[in-house]
Amino acid sequence: MHVDELRTSLQSFGWPDYVVFCLMLAICAVIGVYFCLQLRRESKQLKSGDAEQAANSAASYLVGGRKMKIFPITMSLIASFISGITLLGTPTEVYLYGAQYMYIMGSLILMGVCMFYIFLPVFHELNLISTYKYLEMRYNRSLRFFGSVMFIMASLLWLPIVIYVPAIAFNQATGVNIHIVTPCVCVVCIFYTCIGGLKAVVWTDVIQTMIMFGAMALVLIKGTVDIGGPSVVWQRARETQRIEVPNFNPDLSERYTFYSLVLGGVAHWLKSNAISQNMIQRYLSLPTLRDARIAIWTFIAGVLTFILICGYAGLLIYATYADCDPLETKLAQRNDQLLPLLVMETLGSFPGLPGVFVAGVFSAALSSLSTGLNSLSAVVLEDFVKTFRRQPLSEKQTAFVMRSVVVLFGAIFVALVFVVERLGAVLQLTIIVSSVANGPLLGIFTAGVMLPWVNSKGALLGGLSALGVMAWMCISAQLDLVSGDLVYPRKPYSTLGCNYTFEGVRGEFSSLPLNGAISPASAAPFQLYRISYLYFTLFGALVTIVVASVTSFVLRESDVDAVDTRLLTPFVRRWLERRRSRRTQVPAGKQREQGDQRQRQKELQETAT
User: Which label site among 119, 129, 317, 530 has the fewest CB atoms less than 10 Å from its CB?
Assistant: First the structure.
């Protein structure tokens, strides 16, 4: 049998599978309708004035009235974070490059500590709807506008990839063109997000998280039994060095090292949690800081579980195809079709079970998409419409703006899938392109909560500088990857045991790049953009903080004592309060002298400008 015939025979998506898949979509739509009716009832019960009623309506739509419970919010956080990119991208990474990537779980715990003590206390106390309003309170309106634009840009880069990934799985299972299934499924997501608001998004996330977990568990249990048990998976992984101890090589260009996974990983997780409107909006929908802190750790526990599941899935894929690599034979036409291929081989003979898996992958994507659309409606309403409009919006105008944003951006994301299709492996691609906007944003927020001497001019210059540097790095890195100038050696694989014909030579391949090139990335001349992709967000944040700090010191316009302590993380807040208390104890005559000196310096600066 030829590989093309085998691929076609595996596309056995029958009517029970379509029923399961459509049932998942129908449940999501019904949840949206339910919470739409609930929002209408709440609106009719309000007796307040029009402006206040509009504000209450927006709060209910965007943050659930700040009365949400820990369990659904935690499930929503997990579902939003574990997109189809994680479900399909992580097994692919482990299959190709080994389990070194799994050490990134340690940085997820460190991220939780940073969230617990540094970022969340500030945001929750300020009671915000848009995270970027903080930038106006800490710096000025220009920084708020910059942050909001960066968030929109990051969403435009990220969410089309989120939509594209499950379409790959659907294509592998059914053969249906990805540009047919993508619009159909996204219409359902746009529908329930548009009419139901945050509550609909959160409760569909709960259902989708359960489907994700069930689908992955089903695949792993059946696949492990078919291969002969976990011991076989472990043995085959050890034989090809896919199970590894931490790599302490200081080479910045090596794909995965202990340093890139921990240091770069913390920045990667922080930009997705600490400063992202998608995630912060859910933490702020909880009534108390205590509830939000509990949600952090339960969220981390859930994400760690999913990463372990996805990592084991990568090892299972290799154990299944150890003697016949499906990428070399083109049985899987894209890297990220490896897990769907395993599903169709192990579950294809059981009616309905492939449908459960495809529903699980689409659930992961829909939860991320609905979260992103809901957050975009919050940002556009709070940071653009309300900021630049003099007259307050009525309730109807507020509802129209929020729902229009969801529909408009949903259509844009579907259209951008055509671009994503040509850009390569999804996990690395996602981290690289999102770091363009998120690196500078992480730097600006970190400087805001931890460095009280950084002023608005310094922060803006730092953000713009980092944006330019990161855009150059990301474009250059992606061009090298697409052209084949930058390649990474994959773990050993073989095609000697294939029982079907394919174009190519049968053999064993050891540590060769996937595209057949003979020089790995570490052997290429060093270029800044060729550092490990996990460093990208960290590098962008550091450039922002360094430029912002230097600029603020050079301009000498910062007044540390004038900074509102509510805008600083608790331990910096305590330091600043102690500093102020010591200054108040200075003798009155000396205090007047210091005040006169500051006034003279200010007059000299005004004269110079």
Answer: 530
- N-term to C-term CA, the chain: 79
| Entry pTM | 0.81
The identity of residue 124, as a single letter, is H
Note the pLDDT tens digit of each residue in 115-167: 999 998 998 888 877 788 899 999 988 899 998 988 888 888 788 888 887 88
Whether residue 193 contacts residue 378, with contact meaning beta carbons closer than 8 Å, is answered with: no
Contact residues for 423 (Cβ-Cβ < 8 A; gap 6+): 429, 478, 482
**Cα 46–chain centre separation:** 36
Radius of gyration from C-alpha coordinates of the chain:
26
Rounded CA-CA distance 333/7 in Å is 10
Contact between 444 and 143 under an 8 Å Cβ cutoff? The reply is: yes
Q: Is 582 exposed, middle or buried (0-12, 13-18, 19+ CB in 10 A)?
A: exposed
SS3 track for 82-123 = CCHHHHHHHHHHHHHHCHHHHHHHHHHHHHHHHHHHHHHHHH
For 225-270, write each residue's pLDDT tens digit.
Answer: 999 999 999 999 998 888 988 889 888 888 889 999 999 999 988 9
